[in-house]
Amino acid sequence: MALAAIYQGVPEDVLLAIAEKKTTKEAWEAIKIMCTGVERVQEARVQTLKGEFESLMMKDSEKIEDFCLKLSGIVTNIRVLGEAMEESSVVRKILRAVPDKFLQIVSNIEQFGDVKVMLVEELVGRLKAHEERMKCRSEQSEQQQLLLAKKWKGRLDKSKIKCFNCNIYGHFASECDKPRRKKEYCQEANLAHFHDDEPSLL
After folding, report:
1. CA dihedral 26, 29, 31, 32 (to 10 degrees)
2. Tens digit of pLDDT for each residue in 37-67?
3. What's the gap between Cα 36 and its chain centre?
């Protein structure tokens, strides 16, 4: 009766493995060995995931949302395997893993926020807001640089510029349609001389 009770209480794959056992003790020992093996595999998997969790760092070109989704996947797998992973540990990991461009907001969060009780969602929201502000500033800076370059180019008199590729005035070496001079061109491609001993222009 005890053996029948064991048969009814185990999954089908385990049942097939213990079907040939003649006594309850033999069946129970077989189940114990199988469960121990499964636990060891789970422990090894948890250690691997913890290693991935600790080593994961956000790249400069990566978005905060994409990085946090990746990190969240690792945390979920650790928790599914029965290992506790505190919210504060995940928050601290994100603060350590973000690149230097987040240094200011990270310092503010650590100084004025309560990291011990902060939710991951709250932290990600703050970092995303900071990311958007940086993006806007970067776009404005690029527009200003393009306007400045356009303004400078409009004022530039190329008739005084000597090409170091063909030695003809009126264009830069980078704009020259003549065959490239190898060594000399590489050394002087970014230089231009003016007539009448005027200073060189980088």
Report:
1. 180
2. 777 888 888 999 999 999 999 999 899 999 9
3. 37
* Residue after which a domain boundary falls, among 138, 155, 172: 155
Q: What are the pLDDT digits (tens) for 187-200?
A: 444 444 444 444 54
Closest CA to 161 of 126, 197, 201: 201
Query: Are residue 56 and residue 111 in the same domain, yes or no?
Result: yes
CA–CA dist 107, 181 (Å, integer): 52
Q: Which of 45, 53, 56, 57 has the alpha carbon at shortest distance from 74?
A: 53
d(CA 94, CA 10): 41
Of the candidates 75, 43, 42, the residue with the CA atom closest to the CA atom of residue 56:
75
Q: Which domain holds residue 175?
A: 157-202
CA distance 68 to 128: 11
Q: How far apart are CA 172 and CA 193, in angstroms?
A: 10
Q: Which amino acid is at 112?
A: F
Q: Are 51 and 73 part of one and the same domain?
A: yes
Give the global pTM. 0.53
